[in-house]
TrEMBL record, chain A:
Coiled-coil ranges per UniProt: none
Entry keyword set: Signal
Signal peptide residue numbers: 1-20
Keyword Signal in record: yes
One Pfam family hit: SBP_bac_1
Name of the protein: Putative ABC transporter substrate-binding protein
InterPro entries: Bact_solute-bd_prot1 (IPR050490), SBP (IPR006059), TAT_signal (IPR006311)
Gene3D superfamilies linked: Periplasmic binding protein-like II (3.40.190.10)
Automatic annotation (TrEMBL), chain B:
UniProt keyword annotations, A-Z: Cell membrane, Membrane, Transmembrane, Transmembrane helix, Transport
Transmembrane region(s): 26-51, 81-109, 116-139, 159-179, 222-245, 270-292
InterPro entries membership: ABC_transporter_permease, MetI-like, MetI-like_sf
GO cellular component: plasma membrane
Main location: membrane
Residues annotated as signal peptide: none
Family label: Belongs to the binding-protein-dependent transport system permease family.
Listed name of the protein: Putative ABC transporter permease protein
Lineage of the species this protein comes from: Bacteria, Bacillati, Actinomycetota, Actinomycetes, Micromonosporales
Length: 439, 308
């Protein structure tokens, strides 16, 4: 009788496991991180433009190394974040963890999930020295390097529709005062001043990141990041919050912005269809517009510039924010052989073929001197601009939601949504955020 | 407190069932096993998690007593989420019940064109919630949606960007999907009503409206309770639809309990407070289901057909 019960239970458990496997969305293959041998597993994001380039790098590595191979599993963006956290919690993560660095990486470090690579980089100085120094910022936690920067640099820039400006005889704004002067003129011309995919929340956050920096410099957010009490009460922060609400009140953003998601690429569509004059967005928008915007870029209608300065602000106008790169970490519970394979793979990254691949997608690889390769690209103007912005930036800030812990980031995004909805005042925003500083 | 088991004086119907009742209990086992494995065990897990502060990453789960509960219960987000949940529940009940009742009456009649229409009515029920939400989101897009495409001024609202409108859209889309289901329940209920009642009413000279209010509605009492229970308890778990349509926004205008739970658990990595909200959801659901059963009177199993 007992044995039968046990059998029933184990049958149920097997069925449960099978069901759970069905429920996980869309991995093309499933592997566990604790496999045997030197074969290292590697999870990354699917979809163009990155997937074929990432896959290509793995294929070339596997061809060159018969000893330690890399086995790939791909996921969609949101599914990946959930799947990875679940796998880490269950001790089943891949040997190589693709990520965004910063607060997310810190939470892995705090839970001893990833290896310290500081010594490895010291021994392999050549691997480190060819990459942008700024790309190591988000990979560094408590003065130790926990990830290998890879792929491309993606600063946030101001895109604009040249046609709209020419038609209405206006010039793109260089200062915040000019922005506020342009808003009523563009609205009168029937064009929304700024496109914004506000439902995604991090899109709104980019505005605050720049305003804070232009008004008070990187120190304003650094104080929050360092956990100083009441850091959000800084006058520069309150001024930035007030300015953004002034812009919303003046109908600076496209009608219905709070129901537009960034995933739908509707924010880019508003720009290239001439329904909005400008858009603050990541440099990856160039690839989206080039793929979906017809001949918009070919016809020379896409303009781009840095975020306007703010009158009386102390931040350096060369400062920018965005993704200083993408990041690969090594899972602490992988076998030594797997870790060895992963490190060999790191050495092979961003070879000429991979760099060329990223350039063709409108991205700038995080390799020093990559600008030499940009000249041959049909997108060389934009790529050179991104290279200049990234390499000349006095300070390359990380996206706030990625710099902070997931818990603090969620509170931040939540309050940003309310701020943009005019549900809370700048002071209320600061009060709410002060409560979660250091969490 | 005097809780004594009710004294039941019914003789076991051993004679009539002839030994069947003893052997059929095994038939319930597959259902019980599935319920325990997928219902009770996870529920206990969630209850235990609500006394911890697990961040989804660490291998050890620290026990923190009532901390999560204190966090959740003192957070002003909880009353707001409860309010949004009840608002969606009440509005969708008010919207769905009359429509599905009337549609049920309409398709209960044995006419061919009504059967054809009935099939068409059921289509929304067959679609996935995520697909419906994505479609509606595209249709309601303020810049590229139906209103902008057709040029109708009244359709060009900021449907999902205005707090009140977004809530109404959620209620509408939910109702659009579930009205067919409840119509089906009502159709079944109406077909159970004996035709002799209507014949008698006709002889007495009652018109259609009078027949509806004096026969159909009272006879459907338990059907209404069943359908309402499903609506009310079901509305507690609306998640995918709200998540895709509004993601709880604009601001937190449509952040119902289930959405709040997801955001805390899977976005902010606060599994303890998220589990506490899950427990609250279960308790609210149980209380509502029991309350609605009470509405049906103590004798819910009594026949409605007495005196026919």
């Amino acid at each position: 009788m007992k044995r039968r019960n046990f059998l029933t239970l184990s049958a149920g458990a097997a069925a449960g496991a099978a069901l759970a496997a069905c429920g996980s969305s869309g991995p093309s293959e499933s592997t566990t991180g604790t496999g045997s041998g030197a074969e290292a597993s590697y999870w990354f994001l699917s979809g163009p433009p990155g997937e074929p380039i990432r896959q290509g790098a793995v294929d070339r590595f596997n061809k060159a190394n018969s000893g330690g191979q890399i086995k790939v599993t791909t996921f969609q963006n949101d599914a990946y974040k959930d799947k990875l956290k679940t796998a880490l919690g269950a001790g089943q993560a891949p040997s190589i963890i693709w990520g965004w660095g910063g607060g997310g990486l810190k939470s892995y470090v705090d839970n001893n999930q990833v290896d310290d690579l500081t010594d490895w980089f010291a021994q392999n100085a050549a691997v480190k020295d060819r990459l942008f120094p700024a790309s190591f910022g988000p990979a560094t936690i408590n003065d130790k390097i926990y990830a290998m920067p890879c792929e491309t640099v993606q600063p946030i820039v101001m895109f604009y529709n040249k046609e709209v400006f020419e038609k209405n005889k206006l010039t793109p704004p260089e200062t915040w005062g000019q922005v506020m002067e342009l808003v009523p003129k563009l609205n009168a011309a029937g064009v929304a001043p700024f496109s914004l995919g506000g439902q995604s929340r991090w899109t709104n956050m980019m505005w605050l990141e720049f305003l804070f920096d232009r008004i008070g410099g990187p120190e304003v957010f650094q104080a929050v990041f360092d956990g100083e009490a009441n850091a959000w009460n800084n006058p520069a922060s309150l001024k930035g919050l007030t300015e953004i609400q002034n812009l919303i009140k003046a109908n600076g953003f496209v009608k219905g912005f709070s129901s537009i998601t960034a995933d739908s690429n509707a924010d880019q569509a508003l720009l290239y269809r001439g329904k909005a004059a400008m858009m603050l967005h990541g440099s990856w928008s160039y690839g989206i517009i080039s793929a979906e915007g017809g001949s918009f870029i070919k016809d020379g209608k896409l303009g781009y510039m840095s975020f306007p300065t703010v009158e009386g602000g102390t931040g350096d106008p060369s400062n920018t924010v965005g993704n200083a790169g993408q990041f690969l970490s090594i899972y602490s519970k992988a076998s030594d052989a797997q870790k060895e394979t992963a490190k060999n793979f790191f050495k092979s990254l961003l070879d000429d073929t991979e760099q060329q691949g990223w350039i063709e997608t409108g991205g700038v690889p995080i390799v020093k001197g990559a600008d030499a390769k940009l000249a041959a690209s049909p997108d060389k103007d934009f790529l050179n601009f991104i290279y200049q912005v990234s390499s000349n930036a006095k300070y390359f800030g990380q996206s706030w939601d990625q710099a902070l812990s997931p818990t603090a980031a969620e509170t931040l995004l939540d309050n940003i949504a309310k701020l943009f909805q005019m549900q809370i005042s700048p002071q209320q925003f600061a009060d709410n955020m002060n409560q979660v500083i250091g969490k | 407190m005097t809780i004594a088991p009710p004294v039941v004086h019914t003789a076991p119907p051993a004679a009539s069932s002839g030994g069947r009742s003893g052997s059929v209990t095994w038939m319930a086992w597959p259902a019980v096993v599935a319920f325990v494995a997928f219902g009770v065990v996870p529920l206990i897990g969630v209850l235990l998690l609500s006394f911890t502060s697990w961040n989804r990453l660490s291998q050890d789960i620290p026990f923190t007593g009532l901390d999560s509960w204190r966090t959740v219960l003192s957070d002003p987000q909880l009353p707001h989420a409860l309010w949004v949940t009840f608002l969606i529940m009440a509005l969708s009940w008010l919207f769905q019940t009359p429509i599905s009742l009337l549609l049920g009456v309409f398709i209960a009649a044995q006419k061919r064109y009504r059967s054809v229409l009935a099939v068409l009515f059921f289509i929304p029920l067959l679609l996935s919630q995520a697909a419906i939400s994505i479609t509606y989101k595209a249709l309601l897009d303020p810049n590229f949606g139906l209103g902008a495409g057709l040029g109708f001024e009244f359709l060009q609202q900021d449907w999902l960007g205005d707090s009140t409108l977004a809530l109404c859209v959620v209620v509408f889309v939910v109702s659009w999907q579930f009205i067919p289901f409840h119509t089906l329940i009502y159709q079944g209920g109406i077909r159970q009503i004996p035709a002799s009642m209507y014949e008698a009413a006709q002889i007495d000279g009652a018109n259609r409206v009078r027949q509806f209010f004096s026969i159909t509605l009272p006879q459907l009492k338990y059907t209404i309770i069943t359908s309402s229970t499903l609506m009310v308890v079901g509305s507690l778990t609306f998640f995918d639809l709200i998540w895709v349509l509004t993601a709880g926004g604009p601001g937190d205008a449509t952040r119902a309990l289930a959405v709040d739970m997801y955001q805390r658990g899977f976005k902010a990595d606060l599994m303890g407070p998220a589990s506490a909200i899950a427990v609250i959801l279960v308790l609210v659901g149980l209380a509502l289901a029991l309350g609605l059963r009470r509405l049906g009177g103590r004798d819910a199993s009594a026949s409605q057909l007495e005196g026919v």
